[in-house]
Design a protein that fits this description.
CATH superfamily of the largest domain: Polyphosphate kinase middle domain
Number of strands: 27
CATH class of the largest domain: Alpha Beta
Length: 702
C-alpha cells in the first residue's frame, strides 16, 4: 500500500521549489518589458529546463517501486509515495505548459509577426517566391538526409532517439491498405529554414516543409495524415562504485545504451488522430499520465535559433561586450600581473574570460613552468583550455588533469577530452560517482629567481569560455603561499594516497565545509541582533544549514539569502517575528546567476568566502567543493557592491514572501535603474574606462 504524503512544514519540497524557479523563467518570457527576442529566449530556456527535469527528476521518481517510501533527503518525519509525488509534479507542469502555449500562440508569436519575424505553420502562408525557396531547400538538401522508417506492427517499435522530433505518417497504398511510418528530423540541421527578404524574416520549421512534400518520400503511397511527436528518456546515469570495477568502461557502455533508457514522457501534437495517439501510447508502453498533447510547437527549446538572430537588434537586449580587466594589461605577463596585484578577481561575464586562457597559453610555452594541475567539470565541446593543456603536455610540462566524467550531460565530452589529453602525455584522472569533483582549481608551478612559486586560479564557474559570457561567475587569481599549499594538498589527495590535510585557508567539502558553515552561523546567532549573514548561491536545501539559519533568525540575526533556483527554506513555517529577519531573493535576468558568495558579520570582523558550493546535501556530503577566503579590502568592497546591487534589484529580483511565493513589483520597468546586472556592468565599464584614461595619461606624460 502506498505511503501517505507526509510533508515537513519547515521545508518546501525540492522539486516543487525547482518548478517555482522555472515558473520565474517563464515569467521572464511573458514580461512585456523584455524585448521580443529575449522573451523567445526565455521560452527556449524554460523548455530546455523542463526537458532536463523530466530526464533527471521525474525519471528518478519512476525508479522507485510503487509501494516504496521516499524520505527525499530530509528525515523520517517526512515521507512520500513516489507515484503520488510524480503525479503531483506533473499536474503542476501541465499548468505551466498551458501558460507557455497560450502566451506563445496568443501574444509572442503574433507580436513577432507584427515586427517582421514570421513563424510559419504551413507553406500555404508563403508567397509563391518563398514557396519555391522552401521547395528548393527540400529538393537540394533536406530530403537527402531524411530516413523514412516503416513501422512493422508485428515487431517491436523501432528505436527512437531521446528528444528528437519525429513525424508520424499514416499512408494508404493503391488497394487502400493502411500503413504507418515515421521520419526523424536530422539532428545536425537547424530546426528552421530562415529566409530574410525585404526586411522580414520567415522562419519555416523543417517538419512543415517535410509535411508539404511527403509524397516525394513515399512514392506509390498516399499520405493520409501527419502528426508530430517526441519522447523523453531517463538520462540520470548512476553507478555503484563498490560493485563496478571499471567505471570508465561502465560509463562508456551506459552512454552507448542511453538510446534504450526508459521513456518518461511522450509529447504528441494535438492534431494527431485518436488511433495515432493510442498506437504510440501502447507501443511505447506509456500511461496517459506520461502523455502530453501539444497545441503548439513541439520542442520549443529550438526558439533559441530565432532568439539569437542578429538582424533585429532592436528586438534584443543591448549587447554587453565583456570588458578587459584592469588587473591584466595585455602587454604584461599574467605571472607578473598576479605577482604585482597579489590577488584579484575577474567578474564574469562583465569582464572577459580571456586572462584565464592567456595564463594557460603562457604556462604552456614558458620554459620555467614545470607543472600544471587542473580540475575540469564542464569545458564544452571545443575548448581552448584543453588545447593549451595539450600544448603544455607536448612541450614537456608535467600536466595533471582531473576530469569529472560524471558531470551530467557532459560525460561524453569529458571522456573525449580526457582521451586526447592522455594521448598528448598528460596524466589524466577521473572523478567517481561517490565523490564528484565540483571544485574549480588551477595550479601552476614555476621556477623563478627566488625559487619555486605557485600560481593559483580558483573559480565559482567552469573553465568554459562560452558560459563565461552567459553566467555571472567570479574568478580569483593569487600566488598566496598558504592557498597554493592548500590547492597542492588537494591535488595530492585527489590523485594519490593521502589523508585529508589540515587546511590553511580553504574550506573544503566533504571534509570540513558543513561544520565550518554551521560554526559561523552559530557564531552569528550568538551575536543576536548584531549578527549578519549573507549567502548567495544557486540552491539552498540542506536541512542542517536551514535549521541553523532558522535558529539564528529566531535570535534576531538579519539574514539575506540570494538564491537563484531551489530554495526549500520555508518562511511560512516560521513565527512572524523570525520570518521578518530572513530576506530571500531570486534574480532571473539575461545572465544566469552562478557565483557563490558567503559573508558573516563575525562580531565586527567580517569574513568573506567565495567558491563552488551550493548548500545542498550532495555538495556538502559527496562532492569535492572549495570555498576560499577573501581578505583584501578592495576585493571585499567588490563583493559588497555585488551583493548590494542584487539585494536592491526591484526590476528583476523576486522576493520570497511569508506565503512561500515569489513576488516582484507590478511595474518592474519603473525600477530599470535598479536592474542589478546592468548596474554592475556599468560599474565595471566605468572602472575600466577611468583606469584606461589614467594609463593613457601616464603614457603621455612619460
Amino acid at each position: 500500500m502506498p505511503f501517505p504524503m507526509k510533508e515537513h512544514p519547515a521545508y518546501t519540497l525540492r522539486d516543487e521549489s525547482w518548478l517555482l524557479f522555472n515558473s520565474r523563467v517563464l515569467e521572464e518570457a511573458t514580461t512585456s518589458g523584455n524585448p521580443l527576442l529575449e522573451q523567445a529566449k526565455f521560452l527556449s530556456i524554460f523548455s530546455s529546463n523542463l526537458d532536463e527535469f523530466f530526464m533527471v527528476r521525474i525519471a528518478g521518481l519512476a525508479h522507485y517501486a510503487p509501494d516504496s517510501e521516499l524520505h527525499y533527503g530530509l528525515d523520517n518525519s517526512c515521507s512520500f509515495d513516489p507515484y503520488e509525488l510524480r503525479q503531483r509534479l506533473i499536474r503542476r507542469i501541465r499548468l505551466l505548459l498551458d501558460k507557455q502555449t497560450r502566451f506563445w500562440e496568443n501574444e509572442l508569436k503574433p507580436a513577432l509577426s507584427n515586427r517582421g519575424i514570421h513563424l510559419v505553420d504551413a507553406l500555404s502562408e508563403l508567397s509563391p517566391e518563398l514557396y519555391r525557396k522552401a521547395q528548393k531547400y527540400f529538393d537540394c538538401e533536406l530530403k537527402y538526409v531524411l530516413s523514412p522508417v516503416a513501422i512493422d506492427l508485428t515487431k517491436p517499435m523501432p528505436l527512437l532517439r531521446n528528444l528528437a522530433l519525429e513525424l508520424l505518417v499514416t499512408l494508404r497504398d493503391e488497394a487502400g491498405r493502411k500503413y504507418l511510418a515515421y521520419i526523424e528530423l536530422p539532428a545536425l540541421l537547424p530546426r528552421f529554414l530562415k529566409i530574410f527578404q525585404e526586411g522580414e524574416l520567415w522562419c519555416i520549421p523543417n517538419e512543415v516543409i517535410i509535411r508539404e512534400f511527403l509524397p516525394e518520400l513515399f512514392p506509390g503511397y498516399k499520405p493520409e495524415s501527419c502528426s508530430f511527436f517526441r519522447i523523453t528518456r531517463d538520462r540520470d546515469l548512476t553507478f555503484d562504485e563498490d560493485v563496478v570495477q571499471d567505471l570508465i568502461s561502465e560509463l562508456q557502455n551506459a552512454l552507448l545504451k542511453r538510446g534504450r533508457r526508459t521513456i518518461v514522457r511522450l509529447e504528441i501534437s494535438s492534431d494527431a488522430g485518436p488511433d495515432e495517439k493510442k498506437f504510440l501510447t501502447s507501443r511505447l508502453d506509456l500511461t496517459n499520465h506520461e502523455v502530453f498533447l501539444c497545441r503548439s510547437m513541439l520542442r520549443m527549446r529550438d526558439l533559441m535559433e530565432i532568439a539569437t538572430v542578429d538582424i533585429f537588434p532592436d528586438l534584443r537586449d543591448k549587447p554587453l561586450s565583456p570588458l578587459p580587466s584592469i588587473h591584466c594589461p595585455p602587454q604584461i605577463s599574467m605571472f607578473e600581473n598576479i605577482r604585482r596585484n597579489g590577488a584579484f578577481f575577474l567578474q564574469m561575464p562583465f569582464e572577459s574570460f580571456e586572462p584565464v586562457i592567456q595564463l594557460l597559453q603562457e604556462a604552456a610555452s614558458d620554459p620555467d613552468v614545470l607543472a600544471i594541475k587542473q580540475t575540469i567539470y564542464r569545458v564544452g565541446r571545443e575548448s581552448p583550455i584543453v588545447e593549451q593543456l595539450i600544448r603544455a603536455a607536448r612541450n614537456g610540462k608535467q600536466v595533471t588533469v582531473l576530469f569529472e566524467i560524471f558531470a551530467r550531460f557532459d560525460e561524453e565530452n569529458n571522456l573525449n577530452h580526457g582521451r586526447v589529453l592522455a594521448e598528448a602525455g598528460a596524466n589524466v584522472l577521473y572523478g567517481s560517482p561517490k565523490r564528484k569533483v565540483h571544485a574549480k582549481a588551477l595550479l601552476i608551478i614555476r621556477r623563478e629567481q627566488e625559487g619555486i612559486r605557485r600560481y593559483v586560479h580558483l573559480s565559482t564557474g567552469n573553465y568554459n569560455p562560452v558560459t563565461a559570457k552567459q553566467y555571472t561567475d567570479i574568478g580569483y587569481f593569487t600566488c598566496d603561499e598558504q592557498i597554493a599549499q592548500d590547492v597542492a594538498m588537494l591535488f595530492n589527495f585527489l590523485t594519490g594516497f593521502a589523508v585529508p590535510p589540515a587546511w590553511n585557508k580553504l574550506i573544503v567539502a566533504p571534509f570540513v565545509m558543513r561544520n565550518e558553515i554551521l560554526k559561523r552561523i552559530e557564531n552569528e546567532k550568538n551575536a543576536g541582533e548584531n549578527g549578519r549573514i549573507t549567502m548567495k548561491m544557486n540552491a539552498l536545501l540542506d536541512p542542517q544549514i536551514i535549521d541553523a539559519l532558522y535558529r539564528a533568525a529566531g535570535n534576531g540575526v538579519k539574514i539575506d539569502l540570494i538564491v537563484r533556483g531551489i530554495c526549500t527554506l520555508n518562511p511560512a513555517s516560521l513565527p512572524a517575528k523570525t520570518a521578518k529577519n530572513i530576506r530571500i531573493i531570486s534574480i532571473v535576468d539575461r545572465f544566469l546567476e552562478h557565483s557563490r558568495i558567503f559573508i558573516f558579520g563575525n562580531h565586527g570582523q567580517p569574513e568573506y568566502f567565495v567558491g563552488s558550493a551550493d548548500m545542498m546535501p550532495r555538495n556538502l556530503n559527496h562532492r569535492i567543493e572549495l570555498l576560499f577566503p577573501v581578505e583584501k579590502d578592495d576585493l571585499r568592497k567588490e563583493l559588497d557592491g555585488i551583493v548590494s546591487a542584487l539585494l536592491h534589484d526591484r526590476c528583476k529580483g523576486r522576493h520570497k514572501n511569508s506565503e512561500n511565493n515569489y513576488l516582484r513589483p507590478a511595474h518592474p520597468e519603473q525600477y530599470a535603474a535598479e536592474r542589478s546586472q546592468l548596474s554592475l556592468y556599468y560599474f565595471f565599464r566605468d572602472r575600466y574606462e577611468k583606469w584606461s584614461r589614467r594609463q593613457n595619461d601616464f603614457t603621455t606624460e612619460s
